[in-house]
Amino acid sequence: MERKIVIPGTLLGKADTGKQGRGTFREGDNIYSSRLGIVEERSGYINVIPLSGVYDPAVGDAVIGVIEEASKMSWMVDIKAPYPAMLRVEEVPWRVEFGETARFLNTGEVIVANVSSINEAKNIEISMRDKHCRKVEDGIIVEIQPSKVPRVIGKNGSMVSLLRQRTGCWIFVGQNGRVWIRGEDDKMALLVEAIKKIEKEAHTTGLTDKISKFLGNENESD
Description:
By secondary structure, the protein is an alpha+beta fold.
């Protein structure tokens, strides 16, 4: 399917044929683009994925964050959003006493967390309560543009499955444009190249087939 680039104000469809998603606004029965980007239809929602820019957080997103500051009962975490996110001691899997936050998570350390709330003032809170959340203590983190995350994941996880199968590496893709990978050094090097190729060519069609050929095995359909 051709990937259509739209500008703010472009008519995307009718409300009775799709739900209003990210990067869109509704007037009457029509859904329009609110930004420059690529149209994506997923799970019945019409979204516009920005061509570039910072991470636009949404409640429920799984993110990879870097600890910026440890205070007495919370941490401030960089999740590549316009503002840092707060992680409270009640939202971690450890019993943390007052003033002992740095013993568990200190400046520069990396975590996997979920966006738990965003208020009208754009204050962001995150949680490590889900089973996939943890402190990152091995592997490497690859940074990509947050807008390219859907292409790294692929339809129904097809692209990330291909990357796992062909490299033998473990991969976790954060919605905020950080990718955690673990594996043998040479395989991780190949995986990083593939991820960067996806990021660079995210706007093109037939990308899964291109990555399959790049990794050197049988073709996959996009």
